[in-house]
Fold:
Amino acid sequence: MFVNNEVTERGLLHRMLDRVKDEVTLDERRAWARSIDVAINDAAGPGIPLRNRVARPAVVLGAAPALSAVAAALRDEDLVVSRESLNAVRSFLTDGIDSPLYGRDPLAARRGADALRRRLVSADPAQRATVGSAA
Structure:
């Protein structure tokens, strides 16, 4: 384990953490689904003045149907969501420079949200898991 005061192999905890670092929990998925719902509700409601909004309401509402489908897919316990897919959701919702959600074109935001929805929903049936096998 130790050679010349150096660690030559990782312990059990490091091996376990390496195995689970790419797993996505249902709590993470639900948090991002709630973020989508809040973004849509904020865009639809008059509660926040237009000058204080980061994303344009028309752009968010243009992507709302596809974003709602993304939120539903994230809440689906039977659907396996990879870390890369969840990172794509995070990037779409939070990246103010590259995400079409923060641009001026509702059509571009809708296309981006549709691509995100297809990425989540197009999982093979072999990738679907039952609630019993996930526990």
Summary: The chain has one domain: 24-123. The helical segments are 12-20, 26-44, 57-62, 64-75, 83-94, 106-121, 131-134. Residues 24-123 form one domain. Residues 125-135 have pLDDT under 50 and may be disordered.
